[in-house]
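Holo prediction. Input below; ligand is S-adenosylmethionine.
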Amino acid sequence: MRRDYHAHVETALGKQASSRAIHAAMRKRDSFRFYSALRTTSQDLLYQTVQPGIERTASTINAQVREHARGKRIGSLSLDSTLAIPRSVSAIDIHLMPGSYHTEYEADDATMGLVYDQRLRISTFGLFGPDLGDIGRSISRYIAATMPDLSVRRVLDLGCTVGHNTLPWKETYPKASVFGIDVAAPCLRFAHARARSMGVALNFQQMNARELRFPDGSFDIVFSSMFLHEIPKKEIGVILREAYRVLRPGGLMLHMELPPDDQLSAWDSFYLDWDGHYNNEPFYRAFRAAKLPTLVAAAGFSSHNYLQAVVPSWNAMDETHWRQTIATTQLVDSDKTGRLTTGVRWFFFGARK
Ligand SMILES: C[S@@+](CC[C@H](N)C(=O)[O-])C[C@H]1O[C@@H](n2cnc3c(N)ncnc32)[C@H](O)[C@@H]1O
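Structure of the complex:
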């Protein structure tokens, strides 16, 4: 498809065409139709592979989750059955995942958490690391390496799902209290049991990131990964203002995300936007089109304190090589940023308060 684009579409539209214009041209081409058919079919097969076995054994799985949750009393879980699930989660099967994140099929159900875990394990081909925590691990170690003077006693992960990228913050900062919040109870039940079974003390709470039940200035780091692109555009500003509120002065906000449209080549932008058209990701393209420094400044942060980086995968190389790599500038405009290729690298943006 890329060859076809270079040969026929780039030559007609030029190198600076928008993702929208490229999409309009590529839609007519067999290469794009074939690619899209493969992607949608493989996404469908992913859930057909993962879900039936989980459905058949749901009661056993839930009993095991309860058993782990009863285990060694480390970390905590606090659910709020009165919390309204946002329509952006409940009204659609996000990335075609049947039941989205919140659906419960029996009392105290945790199976949507396991569905998410298993579909991610298959679809990422090992590139998220053995425990699927490579984003949190790479970024937390990057912060520890590049900001050694930052005092980190409390960390908050927004939209943590099953805690894959919450857990590495506790590894990197073992003395910190680490919290993960999400609206989806099944994912949080699974997250809590998972963390306990791994012997890691994490605190999970069911709440909406737009109304955090934490006091002002109560965190040193507010983090999220793969979260904001699933949030309606008008909610993102509210969530970033909440992140600002709960950070202490000098604290750090970090969001690992899709690289933005204005920092990628025309091809890469078009290629990333595929999910926004065909994978039930209705908020994806608006997020990618946003001007990130403007969003951050609107949340209250000084524009001088905006920061972003591209962090090499901790999982992909040995520590010496990783430390050498973070010492060099990593450009966003690369077909490896946020991609599932060898040498994948994670983009984040944020600010110091
Ligand atoms: C793509 S997942 C995030 C993945 C996770 N951060 C990770 O790194 O594995 C998006 C998550 O955001 C949650 N979510 C969506 N809207 C939310 C909101 N307003 N407040 C809190 N969580 C929300 C969903 O329930 C879902 O678990």
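The radius of gyration is 20 Å. That is the main takeaway for now.
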